[in-house]
Amino acid sequence: MMTLQRFLLVFFVVAMTGCTAFQLRDANQALTIHYQALESAQKNAQWRIAEDARVSLDNLAKDSAAQAEKESDARNKIAFYRVATIATWQSESSELSGYAAKGGKLCDGENFNKAPRDCSMLTVVPVLAAVDQTSAGISQVDKQARSGPPDERPNYAPQAEKLFTDLKNNLDIILSRRTLIMSSNVHPEFVLEMDKRIEDLLCQKMEINGVGLLSTTRGNVPQAVCTVYNAKKTAKQAGLKASCTAGEIAQPANC
Amino acid sequence: MNPTLLLFGVQSVTRLARAGREALEQSARDEPAIFPALKAVDFNTENFVNGYFNKPENSKYVTGDGAVYAEYWDGFAVKLEPSSIDALYTAAVSLETAKGGSIYGTSTSAVLINQWDPKKGPISPWARVVLTAGDIVLDYVGNNPGIIGGGSGAVLVSAYASNLAKLIPDSGEFGSKEQFGQRILGVFLRAGLETLSENSSWVASEKHIQELITSSLQPVIDQFPDDLSGQLHWQAVTDAIVGPAAKVMLTTVANSPTTFLGSDFSGDKALGALTTALLTQAAETGLDEQFTQEGLLGLYQAALGVVAEKPQLFVGAGGRTQDQFAKDLLSGFATVLQNMQPPFDNELSTELVKVALSTVGQNVHRFADGSNAWEKTAADLVKTFTDSFSEIVGSGKPLDSVFSRPQLIELGRVLLTNISASPSMILESNNASLEGILVAITNAMKADEHLLLSGNDWIEIVAIASKEAAANPGRLFDLDADNPDDILAGQLITLVLNAASEAITTNKDKAVLFGNTLKEAIAIVLQSSSGKAKEALENLQQVQQLLQSLNALVAGNSGQFGSEEWLELFQSLLGKALEGQSEQGVLVAVMNAMNAVDDALLSGGDWMQIIEVAIQEAAANPGRLFNLDEANPDDILAGQLITLLLDAANETVTANGKDKAVLFGDTLKEAVSIVLRTTSGNALAAKEHITEIKQLVVSLNEFVATNNTQYGSKEWLRVFRVLMGGVLENKGVPPLVVDQVDDILRGGF
């Protein structure tokens, strides 16, 4: 009996020498908790709580990034950078691209399939964060445009054009990265969720919100509609199954 | 404490701890992680309707002819009136509802996502710990077999443990090759334990078993391809075949432990070579309908059987390596099996291969000189055999109505066993002898139009034919290259079959030459003629006549003669016929006599004895009593004499009844014998005094019938014998009175 106890003791001492596993588990759980807190606060317009959540997420991002630097195992580094990147995305900090780039560098050909979900997230999260920024921009410009006199609406058309172009560029980037992710060992549910977000970008944000804003600001609507039509065709060819690409895609006049 | 054990313990703890830490980290990395949703753009109805009605599929509602909501639309946007915005928003909601959709489109929400595709992910973290722990246990068990108890099962598990431990990398990274090795070792263990349970008495040392596993499986593992498609193919084949193959192999080993485990010969290396060859063959040809798993395993089993029986045959004969030899053996037979024609399917062919390997293997010491590819000889034998029988099927003969599948295998076994017992037939004649037998038999089979012989009959005929061919090579079964169908044995068998067909056609109810009788007749022909091939060839006509006469005799006198008598007569008369001496006269004489009168006074046995005497007399005095005049065959003297006796016997039985008459049964048979014996050396006198002979018989009959209280058959025969001599010496027939008869009986005449 004593022998067994000694054995277990030695085992745990040796096993627990590095506590990366616990740190990573904690970071992951913290990310989920802070995210849910932020989402709930935003939904209920609890701005102070939302701000606290953002601060927590920002701190989590910094701690995770610091831990990533210390890790020797590439898979652990990638995991910590994934936490840092997502936390930064939600805290709307400017550090996001840096963390994502450091983590993304580790996701070379060989390592991508050693942590396929983490690498896939590091690949698409910067794009999705950019889409969120654009969405916020659309909300802001739309609000400004509608709050002024009608004849001043065209003044906002250039901003609307830029926001629409940003959406289009983000779509192109995420579609190109989608191919790499599809061929990896990532869980199929990630691909499904990624495609839902691409569908949201294409069918809602570009086609309704982006074109709607151009229309509201009297921008070049026919050109935007034609751009959306071409984007739908490209996405469908890439294998995306979205509500606005189902069946025969309606072609706009003069496109 | 044992220092080695202490060191082992420390190493084990370190390994396990490392594996545990790795597992914890992997577990943390693989925890589900949150994937946030995209944020939505703030909703307002004007922005929405502008976007919605600018969609190409919706613009028709606000612009162009018939646009129902055109009044609310201006250019590319909704009119800046709250009523227009509200109207179009209501219209959009209505349109989307009608389509079953929603104006809110697709919305996303945050979800937790796992790291890996379940189909492509690595083994679970805790499975790694378990495997590492298992590896430590395997190491320990491999070094200390006693821990799992005694017996041969423990020995095998220990040997297995050592091999598996070698295959599990300390790093915990399990590549495809390692996984493959584990898998086949797993099936090896399962098969091994099954085998051990069936052979519980088998006991072997651990070292031997380890070597057995290593030498038989390691070459297979080593050949595992590097490229992915090659791996998949190789894996599919091995998954299907390694388990059954291992069982076959271990069964063979269990049945012959001294061959594989106890001698100087490295039988286990032969196992390795054969096992590798088996898998290579399976990978090359695939396992399809042409060459099934069962077929390949059957071939493997047969080859292993030869290893067990004659291990020295596998020591790389003819300068070949053992691996090359095993490959040649399996590929040679695989080629034969793949080219089989009906009725030989995979199963049947494999059984024949087993027979060939087994029989040639058992006899190979008689002709294997080290340079001969004996496995090729065995394959050629099977090919020759199956080609011949496939040809029969090709000619339209319904072989399946004659032979069942087991019978076809038995046929092959009988033939190959006898053939391989005479190595010179195989090696010196390039299979000509086998071909000779096969041509003879298959030609004869074709001649058996009425299917008078069963499959078993043919098997016995083949057995006799092959034995005779082995005993007297190059006679009955000599192949003439110019006319391969002219094989004497074939001609003889065909003669018998044709005679049988003729008899059946002529009188189906009374013919006896079919089935067992026919088989026996063919056996008699082959056995009688194998030492007299030259004579047989010259006297085929005599044989044919004999067959026809016997058929006629038996058919015409079915009351007296049956198949037994037919065979007895055939056995007696065939030798003479083969020497050109026709005994046709004897048979015709007997037939004439039997046909002339009601022959119910003599039994079949009596007639057989009469024929026997007739044959003896005919042999002693040829060309007299039994001289056959082709123009008038009824004029045979012997026939007339026998008829004379039969007539007289009939008359006296009719006149006096059997109470007073004596000339029937044994007495009549004896009387016929006396006539034949006394007249055979003096046919001319017999012919001249035939009337007196009849008078003598009639007188004697009357005398005995009148004095039946004093005289019987014995007296009749004694007086007849004495007075026949006198008749033939021109002394005539004396008056028969009591005193004179008594005098004769006393010997005074």
From TrEMBL, chain A:
Q: Which organism is it from?
A: Aliikangiella coralliicola
Protein name as it appears in the record: Uncharacterized protein
Q: Which UniProt keywords apply?
A: Signal
Signal peptide start and end residues = 1-21
Please name the PROSITE patterns in this protein's record.
Answer: PROKAR_LIPOPROTEIN (PS51257)
Automatic annotation (TrEMBL), chain B:
State the UniProt keywords alphabetically.
Coiled coil
* Coiled coil start-end: 526-553
Q: This chain belongs to which protein, by name?
A: Uncharacterized protein
